[in-house]
What does this fold into?
Amino acid sequence: MARSITKEEIKKLAKQLNLEILKEIGKGGQKQVYKVQNLASHEIKVLKVIIPDTELERLKREIRAVKIINHDNIPKILETNIEEITSSSQIAWILEEFVDGESLRIALNNGEKFSLKEIVVFLDTMFSILEITESKNIVHRDIKPDNIIIDNQEKFWLIDFGIARHLDLESLTKSNSPFGPCTIGYSASEQFRNRKKEIDIRADLFSIGVVCAEMISGSNPYLKNAKDILEVIKNIENRPLPLFKIEGDTQYLFARFIKTLGDNRISRRPRTVKETKRLFDLVKSTLKF
Amino acid sequence: MNLYLQMGHGMKGHAIELIKKWQEGTVILSPKNMTLEQMKKTANELKQINGNVLFDPQFYMPRVSQERLQQHSYWPDNYSTNTFFNGSGIKDMVETLLNEYIYPIHASGFIIPSLFLKDINNDWNISTRNIINEVERGQIDIPKYLTLCLGTKLLEKEESIHLLIEELEDYPVDGFYIIPEHPNKSYLIDNESWLLNLLDLTAGLKLFNKKVILGYSNHQFLFMSLAKVDAICSGIWLKTRVFPIGEFRDEEEEIARRSVWYYCPQALSEYQIPSLDIAHRGGLLDLLETPDEFASDYSQALFSGAQPTTVNWGESQAFRHYLNCLKKQCIDVSKDSYENTKYYLRLLFETAQDLSDYFRQNGVRAKHRDFDNVAESNLAILDGFDNIRGLVFSTNWDNL
It folds into this structure.
C-alpha cells in the first residue's frame, strides 16, 4: 500500500514554495488538499499533493482536464510541479485558485433549504460546465455535494476532476475491476458497474439529478435509510427517484426533469448536453419563481 | 406510423389487392411460405403497383425451423452454433442473401438475420456482432435493419431491456426489425410490464435515430405510435399477428380451425359473424358498422340490412377489411406532437373500451378478441410511458 505524505514533508514543501499551510481541507485516495497562503503576496490558494509514484497519472489528467475546460465556475490551476523533498522522496503538487465559500455538502448538513430559483441557477451552471466537458470528451464522474462549492456571492463551483474520464485516453481503471471509480450514491450504475463502453456525459447528468433531488428534499433518496453500500446499489438499480412536489413547478415538469436526469436507465436520460438544455429551457418556461 | 403487410400462407392476392387500393405499401416476404421464384414474381408484381418488399430470412431459430426454410439456398447445410458464427458460414449466408435474394427482388432494405434472444446473454452479442461485421464488409447501399427476435422473459424484465438497449447503441445499422414473443402466446396482451418494456425498448432505439419496425403485430400495438415506431407489421392469420415461437410451422393448423371474424375498428375488437346476428336482433348493428372514413367497402355487405350470417361474408373480405382498417388507424395515430398522439390514443382506447363493454352487455361478445380484456393495460402504459420518457419524447418529437 502506498504511503501518505507526512506533516514534515508538507511543511518542507510549503517552505520551498513560499507558502504557509492554513488548514487541511480534504483528503481522498492518495491525495491531500490544503488551504495555503502565499507568504509574499498573501493570496489564499489551494495546494493539492500526492506521492508521484502512486496516482501521478490521475493527477496529470486532473490538470489536463481543468486546463482544457477553462470555465469560470471551475477553480483555475495556477502552478504545478514535482518537488524533490529529500534525495529519496518526491511530491507532486498543484496550486489552485481558492474559492471562498462552503461546500454544498456542508450547506445540506446544516439543513439549508434551496429555493427553485437557486436550483435552477445550480443547473444552469452545471450544464454550462458540462457543455464544455462534453465537447472536450471529458466526464467528471464525481459530481456530488462535496465537490460543489457555493461561494460568498451564491455562485456554484465544480471542483475535483481527480477521477475524470478522458474518453480519448486509455482508461486508468482495469476493465475487470468490479467497481469503477465513483462515489456510490451519486454515480450511475453504468459507472459503478464499470461498463466503460457506455460511460459518457450521461453519467454526470445522473449525478446532477441526484444532487438536485438532495437539494430539493434535503437528503439523497438512494442513501436515505440504506444500511450499507449494497443496499444503496440496490436502491439505485431498482428504485427510481420520486416525483418531487416543488413550489413553483406548476406542471410537475421540473420534477419530471430531475427524475429524467437521475434515471438509472442510461437510455432514458438526455443523450447530450445540448438536448438537456433544450429540455431544461422548455421546463423553465413553465416555472413560477 | 405505417402498416407493413406480413406475408403468410395465401396472402399474395390480398397484398396485391390492398397495395393497389392504397397505391403504396410494403410487404415483408416470408421464405417459409414461398420459393425464391415465387418471391421474385410477387416482388415484381408489387413493384408495378408502387409496392415495396422486404425479405425476412427467418433465421431466428434455425434448429426448429421447418423443411421449406431449409431448402432455401442461404440456409446453411451444416448449421452448428460454434463453427457457423465464427467461420465462413456467416459470410456465405450474407453473400447468398444479398446476391440471390435481396438484390434480385429489389428489396427496399436488408433485414439482417439474428438468433432468437431468450434473455440477455453475451453469446448472442458475439454472434450478432459477427453477423454485423460481415454485413459491414459489403458495400450495401440500402438500409440495414437488424432482426431482434426477443423472448417473453427478456421483455418482462426492465433490467434486461436496458442492457439490450446499451448493447445496441453503437450497432452500425439503420434500424431494427423487432419480433416479440407474446406472453402465453396471447393474441391480445394484458401484461403491462411486457407492453411497457416493449414500448420502452423501441423508444430507446428511436432515440438512437434508428428506424424501428415491429413485426407480427395486431391492432393492440397501435400504442407503439407513442414511441414513434415507424411501422408495425400484420397479416391475415393469427400466426402473422402473433409471432408463433416454437410453432414456426405453416398456418395449416389454424386454417383447419378457420372461422371468420369481423374487425370493428372503433371497438378495437373482432366479432364472429353469429355474434353480429345478435347485434342485428338487438338493434346494435349500426354501432358495429365501420365508419365511412375507413372506406372499407369489404365490410359493406354485413351492414346491408340482412341478417349477417345470411350474406355469405367470407374470410377473404374479413382479412382485407382488417388490414385496410388497421392501415388507416396506423396513419391516424401518428400526430404532429407527442401530447396529441397520447391524447388521441387515450381517446381511441377509452372509446373502444366503452363500446366493447356496451356490446358485451348486450350479448355481442368478442371472446378472446375483445379489446375490453386489455383496455386498462393499454391505458396504463400510456401513463407509464409518459412518466419515464414523456419529457424527452415531447421535446424530441420532431427529430425522431
The two ends of chain B are 12 Å apart (CA to CA).
